[in-house]
Amino acid sequence: MAHNFAIVLYDIPSSHPHNAWSPNTLKTRYALNYKGLRYMTEWVEYPDIESVSKDIGAAPTDNKPDGRPHYTFPAIRDLSTEAVISDSTKIAAYLDRTYPDTPRLMPAHGFGLFRAFEDAVRPLLDPLFPFVLPPTQAILNPPSGAYFRHTREESYGMPLEALAPTGEAGAAADNFGKMDEWFRAGGEDGVYMMGNAVCYADMWLAAYVLWVKLVLPEKWEDIKTWHGGRWATLLENLEKYGTVV
């Protein structure tokens, strides 16, 4: 049976009008749209991620504290090659390798560099999580919402309501300032991480910024003014690659 798409993207739904919200799957959605690849989305609630991943042959991306394999999204299934890939950065590398005639996400042989980028950025994003986790739980459908609450409360050792800060996001602003310096390292007019050419690092960061905008619109009003409007501009520039299909 012929399909009008070549790739299936596995994502987690929500009740938000945008539906797509997860920063990890947003990275892959940006990448697929940027490359102009035909794909469709299969929406899977959190409690079903492990069983669906096993059914399609997606590899676990980590181990749980008790040593059991941990399955996460995004995952893609490429109908043209029968490949199934999980982990957003591995997916980006696969797309560059498999579809060389489309715009590149990473420089050639740049996978290790992007892994280092991820390791550098993750701790800088940590101050955001107490702000975004409670409202994220609120937009999830009931099965995913219950799962999200249980796993995050188990991880943080407190109710989500106790996790939510009431003050300003000062530490987050400072950390985003460090990332702003990376953009400006090649010149004050650097629009993207690599100057004037978009790359996967821009999509990686934009995915987290979009997450905040979607679940915390009141906080976004402040964040969009940070660093000369850097983060609002980044989202505007990548908006054409954020289509949800």
TrEMBL record:
Q: Which Pfam families match?
A: GST_C_7, GST_N_2
Lineage, top-rank taxon, reads: Eukaryota
Xref: InterPro entries: Glutathione_S-Trfase_N, GST_UstS-like_C, Thioredoxin-like_sf
Domain spans labelled GST N-terminal: 12-103
List, alphabetically, the Gene3D superfamilies matched: 1.20.1050.10, Glutaredoxin
Provide the leader sequence positions. none
Which SUPFAM superfamilies does the entry link to?
Answer: Thioredoxin-like
Q: What protein name is recorded for this chain?
A: GST N-terminal domain-containing protein
Q: What is the lineage of its organism?
A: Eukaryota, Fungi, Dikarya, Basidiomycota, Agaricomycotina
